[in-house]
Amino acid sequence: MDIKVISQTETRIRFVVSNASPDLVNSLRRCLMTEVPKMAIELVEFHLGPIMDEEGNEYESVSPLFDEIVAHRLGLVPVPTDLSLYVPKDECVCGGEGCPNCTIMYSINKKGPCEVYSGDMEPLGPPELRIKDELVPIVKLGPGQALLAYASAELGTAKRHAKWQVVSGAGYRYYPTIEIDPDRCDSGGSCIEACPRHVLAKEDGIVKVVDLEACILCKACVEVCELEAIKVTGSDSKFVFEFETDGSLSAIDTLKEALKVLARKFEEFRENVSALEA
User: Fold this and answer.
1) Which of 178, 165, 257, 254 is nearest to 216 (CA)?
2) Whole-structure pTM value
């Protein structure tokens, strides 16, 4: 399996997978969706009772939402993750008690009236741990209301809960091949207008393919071509793959981690098969 990156940003990547089969590419898709670990809020401790500010004003530690709902929303906030620094809590030397090797702590201290966002989660550690997407709404506090809480994040995968899902919108399609018969094509341009992805264009008065990898194999160009000058097919050994992340991991790091997990699972499967044959 060979991979060539076509385009990438911090949270989105598109690449070509060659020398592969549909089942192998689908294994990569499933691995990206469920097997890549990330940090997410798992435990939230809420302060109960009155809270005093510096000016002596008293607030009640309560919000319009139940604490369970607030905790659920905090759990869905993308937490920056460096997989080289953290280990799963059940594998940590602390025995699952929680330490800097397996846990990230955040504090929230807001007094109403105001809106509480993910950017109000202050990391108890280096500034690199600050939430990148600071505008995720958590709760709206009214006058006299306050939110004082401590939240701890730990590693997990989407197999356990969707809040640990790094990737969304993962999909692939067959790599397209577009053949234009110059003897039949009259360069009328109807196929150019029919294509929803601007794959075709006129150059020097001739219809040509200008962005092959944008083709989604809809064959709209084939349907409007009355001269049957265009043929569109897809390869079952080459694919265009793309996905985006929630920002907790970069797209390229997520892809690298998924490939590591996939290679490890294939090796475990090979060893199990070898054990059966012995």
Assistant:
1) 178
2) 0.86
